[in-house]
Amino acid sequence: MDKQEIFEKFIELIREYVKEADRLESAEMGTEIIQDLKVNSARLVDIIIKVEDTFDIEIEDDDADKIKTIGDAVEIIDSKTRVTQ
Amino acid sequence: MNKRRVVITGMGVVSPNGVGLDAFDRAIRKGKSGIRYSQRLEELNFACRIAGVPEVEGGEHEKYFDPRQLNDNIGYATIAALEAWQNAGLEIPDADAPADWDSGTIYGCGICGMETIATRVVPSINEGKVRRLGSRIVEQVMGSGVSACVAGILGLGNQVTSNSSACSTGTEAIVDAVYRIRAGLARRMLAGGSEGPSPYIWGGFDSMRVVLARKFNDQPEKGSRPMSASACGFVPGAGAGCLVLEDLEKALERGARIYGEITGVMVNCGGQRQGGSMTAPNPESVARCIRGAVDDAGIDPGAVDAINGHLTATYADPHEVQSWSRALERGPGDFPYINSTKSMIGHCLGAAGTIETIAAVLELQNGYLHPSINCEDLHPDIAPYEKSIVRQYMDFPEIKTIAKASFGFGDVNSCLVVTKPDEAKTA
């Protein structure tokens, strides 16, 4: 799976947590999940659980804490899925 | 000092026999039962295998919350609250609007988020997977989960809390909301009660043997039999009811439709004394609660036209009728009309008081009394009151005052008197 595919999957996965869904249309790797997409910060743990289920990976708390942008999430998912392949 | 007067300006309901005010009104007029057979209860070896569970389909509420992410307790409560709010002619505010400091809610439940605890919290934690519970468990199992969800959607900025007093919860929520408006502390309160359908809630009652109906599994619609000689316990139910209560002056100012005025309220407890216990009411406290509400309304007990009883279909029904008789000082000769909404929907526990109050208010507003079904064979101790028992639908255009009471485990009681608004007040 290349990063663009991961990006697209991630966008779909966070859609239900994004208060203003139209912002997803212009989302880029640098888009901040809480700041730009107005995701409630308490929901980040739900997004992590969904990422784990969707990509069949485990994300440690320390890694999860580093996720600020969509790109951060894509990088972590990319590195974890490479390991499991 | 004259107390502020409190009126009902909106209602919303999720009932086993009808979801939404219009469907519920049609259902209770017809004596339509919402009790159905439950395969799940059979699989779980319940003695009682029938229940009243609302049939909720997708609706407007899905614009405001995802019902798949919340348990039914909160889902039902929110659907009823949104209906009540809009029924009162109020707009659902924008997410960017400031909080509404004048409006609050007291929205209770009896056993609350038990389904979530049983199916998600306990299994996940026992498997060592606490991390996978996610962020939305606390809001579903906290006692105030119902009021918190409603307040978030409606932007309520006044008191937001959830009461819990077992089967008295719904009626108590109304009483407490009335007190808050009377005290001038809120202009508008949503008063609600809710309960989800869950075998994990009902199991404890099933285990008590005489409490849940177990003899009518093959005839679900006959299973809920308040006031009947063949009553054998209550049928568990679920749902939600919500009323918008407002300061009369404020309601008139905005030209709101007024369903009725809550003229008298009372709550008390029998202290588990004088025959009362955790599970049985102290008859003295029941009579005091009823009389307290009537006195608070400032009316003669003879002015009560009809009673919507607690009447669950347990051994307590005859005692309840006698308590009403004693409290109102009206024997079989001049006893008011009486019916039981539970005959159609079962016992919706924390939601019972509000759903049944809504039934009473619809009767008052529309001038009828709904049938109390399944009591063709009256209990012998109730038989002397036969002419007061509403067994068939009846038109009752002259109805002006209706009383509603609820009683709960813990020996707690609550009672309301609702009066039809006269033309002058609502003009």
Could you give a quick summary of the protein structure above?
Chain A is an all-alpha fold and 85 residues long.
Largest chain-chain contact?
A-B, 8 and 7 residues
CATH homologous superfamily descriptor of chain A:
ACP-like
Strand content of chain B: 15-25%
The helix-strand sequence of chain A is HHHH
**CATH fold-level label of the largest domain in chain B:** Peroxisomal Thiolase, Chain A, domain 1
The first-to-last residue Cα distance of chain A is: 10 Å
What is the number of independent domains of chain B? 2
The total count of helices of chain B amounts to 14
Number of strands of chain B: 15
Distance between the termini of chain B: 25 Å
Q: How many DSSP-defined strands of chain A?
A: 0
The biggest beta sheet of chain B is recorded as:
11 strands, mixed
CATH topology of chain A: Non-ribosomal Peptide Synthetase Peptidyl Carrier Protein, Chain A
Note the beta-strand portion of chain A. Answer: under 5%
Helix content of chain A: 40-55%
Give helix % range of chain B: 25-40%
List the total number of helices of chain A.
Answer: 4
Question: What's the overall average pLDDT of chain B, rounded?
Answer: 96
Average pLDDT metric of chain A: 92
In CATH, what is the class of chain A? Mainly Alpha
* CATH architecture name of the largest domain in chain B: 3-Layer(aba) Sandwich
